[in-house]
Amino acid sequence: MQELFPNLHIEQGYPGVVLGAITLSHGLVLIDAPFRPEDIRSWRAALVNLGGGVDRLLVNLDAHMDRTLGSRAMDCTVIAHEGVVSALRNRPSALKSQGVETGAEWELYENLGNVRWSPPEITFTEHMKIFWNEAPLVLEYHPGPSNGAIWVNVLEHKTVFVGDAVVYPQPPFLAQANIPEWLQTLEVLATSEYRDYLIIGGRTGLVTLKDVERQAEFLQKVLSRLESLDTGTAPLETLVANLARELLGEFDVPPERAIQYENRLKYGLWRYYVRHYRSSEETLED
């Protein structure tokens, strides 16, 4: 666990997403959850040493399975954007193989046990403030990366958790994205308002404004390539697979992650194209 401030910690030691823990006078506010049972037990034990009040809240930054699989096992009130509710309702009641590799972290692990989804007890649409300290925590809807994507702004320390808005230098998840909205979100993050902020990405921890810029440049390239994709020359699956391999070259990928990241791009590009460029009759269900 890394201490950014005496009452603000992040944890990058578990597979999945970067976790946050904010110790306030009224209790702990947690950012996302691990998904492996042993990691959940370890994380809960570590939180005991942070002190703070007796109450706990868990904030899900979006509906991605890497960050929502373990929500119920954290045994606390869950807060998320209202879009997360609809995403969870559309999932099967039991965790099972999707039959396709999406490039998510949870797919690399077996024996995750029986999972029951934990719909958030508290939801919001645009903004929400948590007054558990002198300075409130501000939850803000920032669309683009996925349905129900939000940020948590810790005003006290000028620190913001942005989830999958910035995952550079990893390839992004595109399946549920809206790239034009995502680019607008990144423009907000690049404004002077956040110039002195610590920015916590949901996959890689602390990110810089240069990372934000590179994320935007990559998304612009993805959008341009998809808009010019000539689907009359070859099957869509072939075109998307070729594009995924091309785009993967934009990243310095560790050999052990090459297949996972290529699958992430391939699945995301195919899903994005069908959702945004095919007729409504062909569009896939979420």
- Poorly predicted tracts of residues: 280-286
**Proportion in helices:** 25-40%
CATH 2nd-level architecture: 4-Layer Sandwich
Which value, in Å, is the CA radius of gyration?
19 Å
The total of beta strands comes to 13
What is the string of helix and strand elements? Answer: EEEEHEHEHEEEEEHEEHHH
- CATH topology type: Metallo-beta-lactamase, Chain A
Number of domains: 1
Percent in strands: 15-25%
Largest pleated sheet: 7 strands, mixed
Topology:
Elements: E1 2-5, E2 8-11, E3 19-24, E4 27-31, H1 37-48, E5 55-59, H2 65-68, E6 77-81, H3 82-89, E7 122-124, E8 127-130, E9 137-141, E10 150-154, E11 159-163, H4 179-189, E12 198-201, E13 205-207, H5 209-227, H6 236-248, H7 258-277
Parallel strand pairs: 4-5, 5-6, 6-7, 11-12
Antiparallel strand pairs: 1-2, 2-3, 3-4, 8-9, 9-10, 10-11, 12-13
Helix pairs in contact: 4-5, 6-7
Question: Care to give the gist of this entry?
Answer:
Helix content is 30%, strand content 20%. The chain has 286 residues and is of the alpha/beta class.
